[in-house]
Structure prediction request, 133 residues.
Amino acid sequence: RPHIAGRTVVNPDPDRGQLSSLQTALAALPSEVEAFLFIPVDCPAIEEATVAALIDEFRAQPAPLVIPRFGGKRGHPVCAAGSLAQEFLAMPPGAETRAVVNRHESAIRYIDLDDPGVLTDVDDREAYRALIL
Prediction:
């Protein structure tokens, strides 16, 4: 069974935007990584089983991207093949990750899960209160 690891990487200049945080993390990945998952920081309600399901699906049938859906809507986290790291790293400042995702739309493997957290976006106090209640 392949090794699963996580590590914290701090973006030295987060004012460069959301993409810069992903690029900082990807630059720290070993070159032989099989896959990686990413999620915006404002999506904190993902169930552990969702992460496991994405990894299991990628291992069973590798695809450039494995993305969860809830109620027919795609969400987070995104599981990406290690080969896509260079595409994300090559994106210019201010670009959005969806550009790479959309480029591979025809090869995305979606998995429908019973986890509304894949769609939860916490951007303000009201959303945070709703999350913790």
Remarks:
- The chain is about 30% helix and 15% strand.
- Residues 70 and 116 are 6 Å apart (CA to CA).
- The longest strand covers residues 65-70.
- The longest helix spans residues 48-60.
